[in-house]
Structure formats: C-alpha cells, structure tokens
Amino acid sequence: MRNISPGVWFILPTMLLLAALIVYPMLSTAELSVTDANGAFAGMRNFNVAISAPSTRLILFNTAYYVIGSVVFQLLLGILAGILLNQHFAGRSLVRSLMLIPWVVPGIVAAMTWAWMFHTDYGIINYIMTQVGVISEPIGWLTNPNTVMPALIAVNAWKMFPFVAVMVLAGLQSVPEELYEAVRVDGANFWHEIWHIMLPQLRPVLVSITLLLTIWALDGITIIYSITGGGPANRSMIFPIQIYVQAFEYFEFNRAAALSVLYFLFISVIIVLYMRVFAAQEKD
C-alpha cells in the first residue's frame, strides 16, 4: 500500500465510476445478446435473427447514407463559414455570434421546428418554393421515401456546421501571417491561399473534427426519431433508432442487445480504419 503512487488514489474514484457506468453496461449487454427472454443461453441465435432480418440491410444502408451525407455537408459548410468568418468585414463579431445559434439550439427544438418547416401542406419551405415557381405543387419532404433522408441530412448539417466553423476559425487564428505574405509576394490570390495555406494548416483540426462528427452522427437519434421516427417504411430508420424500438417498443431486449453489439463492432471497425489511414498519412 505504501508503494502505491498518490496519483492512483486520485484517479481511482473516476475509474470506478467509469467501470460502473460503462464497463458494467457493456458486459450486461453482451450477456443479454447471448441469452433468451428466460435467461437461458441462446448462443448466436439473436445475432442470426438480427442479421437475417429483411430490414437490416436497408437500415445499414440508411445509417451509412445518413452519416456520410451529414459529415460531408457539415465539413463543407463549416469550412466555408470558418474561412469567411476569418476575413475582416463590418459586423464580424455579430455574425460570429449569430452563427452559433443552430449549434446551441436543443436538438428536440430544432427537430420540431424543421418538421413544421418541411410540412407538406403548411410548411414554409413548400410555400416559398411554390411562390417563386421552383415547384408547381407541394413536396412531401418527410413522407416521400426519396426525399426524407436528404431532408434529415440537411437538418443535421444545419445543426452541426457551426461547430466545424468554430474549430476551423480557431485553427485559422493560429496560422502565421508570414505564410500569407509569402504567397502574396509570389502572386497568389485568395483561392491559392485557401488551397495551399489554410487547408494544409487545418489538416490536423479537420481530422479530429471528422472523427467527432462521424461518432456523433453514428450515435444520432434525436433529429430522426423526433421528425420521422424512422419512417416512411423504414426509409429513415438507422441503427440507434432500431435498437431503441426493438428494446423499448417491442420489448425484445435480447435482440436489441445483439444489435447493439453488432453496431458497437461496426463503429469500432470504422474508427480503427480511420485512425490507421490517418496514421499512415502522417508517416508519409
């Protein structure tokens, strides 16, 4: 006991708390995934049922579609906004403050607001588009299987791009002014500065942001569940919502646990591959 470092005693309460809140639930979920409703060992039966379900392939596609689409547009909008907010113009501080509104608005509030805006009959989006002649009749953004996922991606991109913009702006603040002056001497324009100075300097920031956005999108449930609940016809159903529905609406906790384990492995593979690709690029 006397040879134990004092630091261990300081970190021990945190480790015990993490074990109670993370490790135990994970082990409990793993146990549920290999048992039946009576607690008897079921082997891989729950996993086989989850994998062979007709909706699993569609849900996997929806999840990948939603995550990739959200992250791409969040990055594009965030990088563009961050670069613009780094320029000098009148009212820049006010614009920077207003840009944070989508990010700080609670997810459920944003979801309900956008659900009203996308409403087929009373939504402001259809009203404006019909008034200016873009469309001839209202579009069922949230009821049409072909438009529901792009609409949800747009909501998620609107919600999270300010975070990317703030991180990009912070990264640009640390870029030495001498780099800009050097390329300007060589005759570079603004687009050259973006491509050859800003984006290379932002690369470490963008790598971290991309990983965070991917994890958040993979765990995202508020926007989709609040707006569509996974419909219509499972066209906006993603894995987190399916796990929730399986457990707390159908009360099939064992199959929900099996889905959770599969989804955990799926996320782990994505993160490991992403980090390995980034590490390989760093070595090059």
How are the secondary structure elements laid out?
Elements: H1 6-33, H2 45-52, H3 54-85, H4 92-99, H5 101-104, H6 107-117, H7 124-131, H8 148-173, H9 177-185, H10 190-219, H11 222-227, H12 239-248, H13 253-283
Helix pairs in contact: 1-13, 2-13, 3-8, 3-10, 8-10, 10-13, 12-13
What is the CATH topology assignment of the largest domain?
MetI-like fold
- Integer average pLDDT: 90
Largest sheet: none
Gross morphology? globular
Name the helicity range: over 70%
Please provide a written account of the structure.
The chain is mostly helical and about 280 residues long. The chain folds into two domains: about 170 residues, MetI-like fold (Orthogonal Bundle), CATH 1.10.3720.10; about 45 residues, no CATH class. Helix content is about 75%, strand content about 0%. The protein contains 13 helices and no strands. Helix 3 packs antiparallel against helix 10, helix 8 packs across helix 10 and helix 12 packs antiparallel against helix 13. The chain is globular, with a radius of gyration of 23 Å.
Main features:
single chain; 284 residues; mainly alpha; MetI-like fold; 2 domains; 13 helices; globular
Brief overview:
By secondary structure, the chain is mainly α.
